[in-house]
Specification:
Blueprint (H helix, E strand, L loop, with lengths): L5 H10 L3 H19 L13 H5 L3 H11 L2
């Protein structure tokens, strides 16, 4: 497939109101990688996150909950 930059597909996902599902999938996959790899607490994980998600006051806690439930 063709590479599509995050600034393009995130905007489309926001417009189509699919950003929450996309973010949840990304967060679940990230949590699974952390669980499988047994990554150290000081490991850096970089994700492209939409502005809409960053403005959501529950976003950070939602990600933390996903990490905790993947253990």
């Amino acid at each position: 497939g063709e590479y599509i930059a995050p600034d393009r597909f995130i905007a489309v996902a926001e417009q189509q109101r699919l950003i929450r599902q996309l973010s949840d999938s990304l967060l679940q996959q990230s949590a699974e990688v952390v669980r499988q790899q047994g990554l150290a607490a000081q490991t850096t994980l970089a994700l492209n996150v939409s502005a809409q998600e960053l403005l959501n006051p529950q976003f950070s806690q939602h990600f933390i909950d996903m990490l905790q439930h993947s253990e």
